[in-house]
Write a structure and sequence with these properties.
single chain, mainly alpha, 52% helix, 7% strand, globular
Length: 60
């Protein structure tokens, strides 16, 4: 995967898979790798009712 999906459901699924499989340490690591602005990503997630839980290291 060379970019993050635009569809919110695919985005959440893909990011959680990357985090679960320990390919990336946290959401900041994913944002850096895929050249995504963390603030923009958080806003997209929030608009769809999701947020990143650092304690669980997943989008919930």
């Amino acid at each position: 995967m060379d970019h993050l999906p635009q569809d919110i459901f695919m985005l959440v699924s893909s990011v959680n898979t990357l985090l679960r499989d320990h390919e990336y340490e946290d959401l900041d690591d994913i944002c850096a790798c895929f050249d995504v602005d963390r603030t923009d990503l958080d806003a997209r997630l929030s608009a769809a009712g999701y947020s990143y839980d650092a304690g669980l290291n997943k989008i919930v």
